[in-house]
Structures are given as C-alpha cells and as structure tokens.
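## tool: complex_structure
## caller: assistant
## args:
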Amino acid sequence: MTVVEAEPRSTATGSIRVRLRTPARRRNMELALLLFAFALSGAAVTLVQLGALGRVGTTVLALCALLAILLLGLHVVLRVVAPDADPFLVPIATALNGLGIAEITRLDIADGLNGWDAAGIRQIAWAAIAISLAIATVIVIRNHRILQRFRYIAMFTAFLLLVLPVIPGIRSPRFGAYIWIQVGPLSFQPGELAKIALAIFFAGYLVQARDSLSMVGRRILGIQFPRARDLGPILVVWVLAMGVLVMQRDLGTSLLYFGLFLVMLYVATGRLSWIVLGLALFLGGAYAASRILGYVGARFDAWLDSFNQTIYDQQGGSYQLVQGLFGLANGGMVGTGLGQGRPDIVPLAESDYIIASLGEELGLVGLFAILGLYLLLVSRGFRIGFTGQDDFGRLLGVGLSFVVALQVFVVIGGVTRVIPLTGLTTPFLAAGGSSLVANWIIVALLLRLSDSVRSQPQLVVEQDR
Amino acid sequence: MNKELRRVSIVVLVMFLALFSSSTVIQVFQQDNLRADDRNVRTLYASFSAERGPILVDGEPIAVSVPVDDEYKYQRTYTDGELYSAVTGYFTLNQGNTGIEGSLNDYLSGTANEQFLDQLNAVFTGQNPKGAAVELTIDPVVQQAAWDALGDQKGAVIALDPSTGAILAMVSKPAYDPSELATHDAAAFREAYDRLIDDPDDPLINRTIAGDLNPPGSTFKLIVTATALENGLSPDTKFPNPPTLKLPQSDSVITNAEGGACGGGSTATIATALRLSCNIPFAQLGLQLGYSKIAQQARKFGFEDDGITIPMSVEPSVYPPTQSDAEQMLSSFGQASDRVSPLQMAMVSAAIANGGRLMTPTLVESISAPDLTVLQGFEPTEYGTPISQATASTLASMMVDGVSNGAASNARINGVAVAGKTGTAENGAGAPYTLWFTGFAPADDPRVAVAVVVENGGGLGQSGFGNLVAAPIARTVMEAVLNR
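## result:
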C-alpha cells in the first residue's frame, strides 16, 4: 500500500514506517465507522418523526444527507492532509451530532416548529458551518507547533471572547447569565470558543514556564508548594474564573476554565500542590459566591433540596431540575422510544436539557451509550497526551479532551444531581451554534495532533532517546 | 508527564462513573418514586394519550375519543353533548372530571386494576393502551322524551326500571355542552368553565342527584303514609278535618292546598288525604307517628345514605330532626327542612312499584375491555325492603286513585293505570314553588318509575303547582317507556 505524504521523507524511515503501520487502513476504518454513524443518525431522525408524527418528512433527512456529504469531504481531506489521524474522532462526533439533531427535531415536532424556526434545521446549518471550519482547520494548520507561537495571541483572543458578552450593545443576557452576544439575528456564546483559545494559551505558556513552576518551592506536609512569586499565573486565572462567575453570572463556565487550567498545570508540572491550592482557591471563591451572589446560592439550594415545594416553585428554583428527573424516570431502563416520550415538558429541553430528553426516549441504555461515546472520544484525546512526541502537543491534546470531559461532567452531572446545575451545553448534542463550532474545531485539532503522533515513526524516536 | 496523565485519566474515569451511577439511580432505583410524584405531569399526560374508552347508549357512542394531531393525541367528543350532559359529565385536561367520565375514569382511561394485564400487553405489543367501554342503562328514546318534555324549565327528570334499578333517563336543566370543557385550548376551556360556573342557574350541577336539594312538598306524604301503614294504621284511619289548623305554640296557620276541608265531611281518611293531597290530616298523622318512626322509614328508602353511587355519588336526601310539634307537622307534608333529590323520590316510587323491594339504582349496564371481554357486568341488586308487599300494594292503589280521581290527574294515560303523587313545595314567602311529580306505570305491572322536579315555579311563580307543570312531563316520559 502506498502512502500519501505531505513531505518526502528519507527512504530509511519511510520503509520502517510502511512496515510498522498502514495508515490507509485507519482511514478505511474511519470510513466504515462514519458510514455506521450516518446510519445511526439517519435511523434516529427517521424514528423521532415516526414516533412523534407517525410519518417521515424528507426535509430533515435530505439536509442530513448534505451534512453527510460534507463529512465525507472531511474524510477525504483527512486522507490527504492527515492520513494518520485517529479514526474514531470523526465518527464519534458525527454520531453525537446526529443524535442531537434527531432529538432537537423531535422537540421541534412537539413544539410545532418548522423551517427556520425549527432548532433542528438551524442545528443542521450550524453543523455544516462547524464541519466546514473543522475542514479548514485541518487544512490550514498543517503543524500544530505553529499554535505554540500564537500562545499570547490566543490569550488575548480568549480574554476578548470572555469580555464580549458583558459589553453593552452586543451583550444579550438570558436566564440571568451574560454568556451570549447578539449581533443582528445571530447570537453566539463566545465562551465556547474561548475554551479552545485558553487551552492553546495554557499549553504554550505551561510548556515554557513549567520548570520554574515545578522545581522551586518548599515542602509543607510532604507536598512541595510553589514560591509566592510563582503564584502569579494561577491567581490570574483564578481572578479570571471568578470574574466569569461575577460578571457573566455563570458558574459552569467558571468551573470549566478553572478546571481546565488546574489539570493542565498539574500535568505540566507534576505538582499535586497546584491542585490542592487551586481547589482551595476555587472552592473558597465558590463558597463566598454562594453566600454573596443570590443565583449561586439558589443553585445550591435547588441541588440539595430539589423536591422542596418552596424551592420548586421559586423563580430560578428546582422546577427544571425536577422536571428533568421526571423525564429520566419516565425513560427508565430502555426509554420510551424515540418520539414517544414527553421531553418537551422540561424547559430548555433542546439545549441545556438535551441529555434528559435523550435519557427519556433512549433510556438508561441510550444514556450509557452516549456516555460511552464521550468517554471514548476523551480517551482518544488522552492517547495523544500519552504517546505524543512534543510536550506542547501532548498538553494541548490533554487540555482539549479534558475540557470536553469536564463539560460533559458539569452538564450531565448537573442534570442528574451529582453537582449543582449550571448552564453549559452538552458537546455535540445540545442545540447551539457556538458549541458545535467549538467542539468540531476541537475535533479538528485533535485530528491534527493525533496525525502528528502517528506520523512520527516510534522506532526512530526511541533510537533518539 | 505520563504519571500525571494516568492520574488525570483516573479522575476522568471517576467523573464518568459518577454519571453512570447517578443516571442509574434516577432511571432505575428512583424511577417509581419519581413517577408517583404528583408534580409529574407525564403520568397525567399518559392517561390522556391512551385512547379513552367510549360511553355507549344502546350500543351507540355518546362520548368517544378521536385521534387528533396534538400533544394529547386524542380529543374527547360528545354526540348530543347537552342531552346527555347530566349522565356523561365532562372530561377535562386535569381540571377535574364529573359524571360517568369522573366516576368511571379508571375504566375509561384503562388504568383500573382489572385492566392491568391489558396495559402490560400494550407495553409489549407497542400498541397504545385503550380504555374500557361503558354501556349505560339509559334508553335513548326515553332520554329524548324526558329532555323534550322538560322543555326550557329549570329542573330534572329521572326515570328508572323499578324491577332492576336501571336508570332509563336522566335529564337536568339547564344543561351544558361537555365538548366545550373537553377542549385542549386552555383559554377556551377557561372561558367556558368560568361562564358555566358563574351561571346563576348552575348548569354544571346534575339536579337529579346533587346540588341544593329541593323540599319535597306533598311527595313526602308517600313516606309518611308508608310509615303509617308499616305501623299498623289503615288507609281508612280518620283524622279531624278542619279547613285551617293553627300550629301548636305558633301563630302560623296551615291550610290544604285547595283551601277548605279535605273532601268534605268532619273527618278525612289517610287515603282521601293522599288522593287529594291535603296537608292538615297529614300534619296530624305526622305528629301522631312522631319524628323517629318517619325518619326510620325514610332511611329505609335511602335517606341519609351517603354511600349510594350510580356510580356517581348521590347527595343524600334529608329528613332532619324536628325541634317542635309545629315543625314536625310541617315536615310531615314535605316542608320544614326536608330536602330530597329526584332520584330519591324515584326510588320511593320504585320500591312501591316493585312490591316493596327497592333495587339499587345504577346507570351502568356493563363495562367491556377493548377486546370485548366484559370487565364488569351488572346484576340487579336489592338495596333493601323498605316496606312490606302489602304496604306496597295498598300504597300503589292509593297512588292510582290520586291520578285517576285526585290531585295528580294530569298524569293520566289512556288505557293504563298510572300511580302518582304530586308536590308543590313552598320556598319561603313570595318565592316561586318547587313543583314535583313522582309515580310509576303501569300500576299492575310497573315498567317505569319517574320523578320530575321543576324549580322556580315552572315560570309561574306561586301560581304553578305540581299537577299543572310536573305531572304532564312525567306522563310523557312514562308514555315513552310504555310505547317501547
């Protein structure tokens, strides 16, 4: 089997590589899995219509077919520009995106929404944009190390994106949170993109600074704590997270950014003290916020005492949480069947509560499958961390996949009462363009990173060491 | 770096394990509790989404659920909604149900215990569960006759088969269209409900069995006469016959309805007093019998029983303890605090018609599952034997006299012996009378017992009386049965 190469290599390593692995097999596997994901999504879209309407409309299916063509385009592009990229990433993202479109379409049917009013149609349009951007990302970024150079640009971008939703004129507060911007008919959650910029910045910065952050300091109780002057960065990020909490009134996003930073810091430095310090800072801040900021306190009350009638009836109380639990209970072990449940009863069933909607109609079995897909996606990202050749790439791979894992945990954990409910989107599933765009770009970056891992012949590297 | 990564991987795994556990706890272990929570509207919606069983009259549906394209999947519709409104009641989206719709909701919605296996079957076959069909005892011809006969009057008509207790007609006016309340449009429902509930004529109340019951007037004399006969008095027992009677310890004077003495003569028999519906002899008879004997007899007919269900529960008729001789005398001809439902008076007539055996009244002939297996068939059951056969036959012939030769003359049917008793009850100074008729036909082989009440004096104020307004309505209804 011949290999399509971006750059010619020496015949020696080339021959080893060809003996070691056959990259085209990966792409063929991706194609097979992708076709399976198409079938799954198509079946889901068909079933929700059959279940909820009793007939199948062709509009959504036709639009999904266009998405499939776009995804095949991504697949072909990968054969050319990243033939060694991980074969699981695109099919998993496709399956989750397809399931999301199916369930959102189901809720559109329940709400009697059609055409551009239908969140499902808009979701398909956003998916097209997101996948196109993913294609552009893998084409434009041929070598992920370039991103390391842009770490401070990434920082400023992240800062800008975080500030946008509180700027008068374009800000668009919803449900008490300042995480949207509205420009004309378009609304966007800049914070979703900010997490990518932050991951790039953290990775670039930590690779450079980790020595000073990990080597020096004094030991207290067997844990080495950093010097006071090295506390600067973590304090800056802490202030940033608290700023999000206070200015944007969004506990979930705040937790997401801070968690991302802590984990990347720990992986980069290997110092547990950072985690201890960071958690102490965050929990302290969150506790203070829960006492000072009414909305944080209300979230905690709704979490701890959901079934209390007073809290249930309160504005911003536990109504949505409890209704979501009713939905999940209605689904039980095997679910009501797609299109057969009543997920539309829960507020925001198509966005924040998409997981409760799917849990109701697909049951515990379906929820486990979805969680399994996420776990697989995250583990593929962590693989880059384990096997990558350069520390920037490893750190970035871990950061990007951990941010997906943490977001899944915060959202689904909120819905299932593991932690207080916050308003994050479920990656790939929830209705919302910003989330789709951000997560598909994450997939594109992971594809690029995984390709660079695999296209480095391990045998040669090991000889280098 | 790999050591740290392994640790972070474990943390991620723990996070996911927490999600696996929490979803398992909710969807499996807490499932029943969450489903039972009364804030869980899904359980409620499920009952709407099942195809509710029809209500049938003579095999024809009068209430059915038809598939519609909205979230409740089925729309309850009523053919002849107003005509049957007293029977069907209404079925709303979570705003309460009445009538058969309310009292047999378990069966109609398919959630009754007997239907458990059907529900299970529906789960496995994937079919929508269906409710059971309720066949009523109502005779559509008699129902229509009663509806037409009552016309625009405010009142109620009930007819039943004295030998089985089967209710043949149940009309209450003003009526309403239950379709208006079955709407899935919340605003339209609210408008209709508010309008009906604010209507001073209370169309939502089924006057045959509920509401502010009416004083029975002279129809109560049937119960006093029954008490007398059961206590050894004969129809020929005589009482002084003055044209007016001053009540003891009171300035009030009572008269007979027609004025003057009762049929002439210095004494009047119980038979004459019942035939001509005279108050003064009954006042004396009631005082002589005393409260407790009459109350005991009334209870045997069903008074004070709050457990009568047809299957809607029936507001008990009352004969409350009297505080004085004057009140006892007034209560003996159906005034004072006596309050009765038309169903109760029909039960009195039915017991007399059926040789003293009172059959339990019911609206339900059978309840059948969607596969036509009968879940509940209804055998006639005996409520009790309030009077002996002898008393019954004596009373029956006295009531026949009342129609053929007395105060209930407008209930006469050519060629048929009709037994009947009218009532014209006062509701206080100046207020219009409540007009009554109860009876049965044919007297020798009763096929129908009726009770008719017309409120508001039949539109005639204090010049209306039972024989003028209520008796012709009853006659039409009885004729409808006899012509079947």
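## assistant note: Chain A touches chain B through 47 residues (CB under 8 Å). The beta strands of chain A are 181-183, 186-188, 218-220, 223-225. Handing back to user.
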